[in-house]
Specification:
Low-confidence stretches: 159-163
Biased composition (Acidic residues): 159-169
Transmembrane segments: 36-59, 80-103, 115-137
Oligomer: single chain
InterPro entries: DUF3180 (IPR021517)
Structural class: mainly alpha
Helix content: 55-70%
Largest sheet: none
Region (Disordered): 147-169
Number of strands: 0
Strand content: under 5%
Protein name: DUF3180 domain-containing protein
Shape: elongated
Length: 169
Amino acid sequence: MGSIRYRWLAVIVLASGAAGWLVNDWATRNSLPPAVLSIIGLLTVLLISGATLFLGLRVRRWQQGSRDRELDPIAAARTLVLAQATAYAGSLLLGWHAGVFIQQLPLWSLRPGHAATWGSLAMIAGGVLMISVGLLVERFCRLPPDDSNGRGTAARPDDADEREDGEYA
């Protein structure tokens, strides 16, 4: 399984930001409310980030030597997939709500209520949190490189093309 590509995260942020700006611009022109997630969405972001971090810490404790019981490899793989999905979903949320925020900013002085602007800022922070937790937990799931011959290199010649960071747990 490959690691998260930072370039793809940036592409998702930019594409969803453009989509968020366009959809919100259309909604504003047609007197519709801004497309911003509510406080329940922010609570869901916090819950998902917390669950991902909790599962990642379990894998990290096992890696750090607390091996009183065996780590289920399926659970470790699921934790890795959850971490990657959290980072990608966070980039989608970040981009969308950044686009909404940028579109709402010129209307700041014209509107009495700024709930959409503050809501989009809160979801931007939630998106940054999801990306951070996803990248951190992905790092927790990475095993150190093999050092079975004591020289800091792989013992088998067929392992030489492996990444320097090692494999995933």
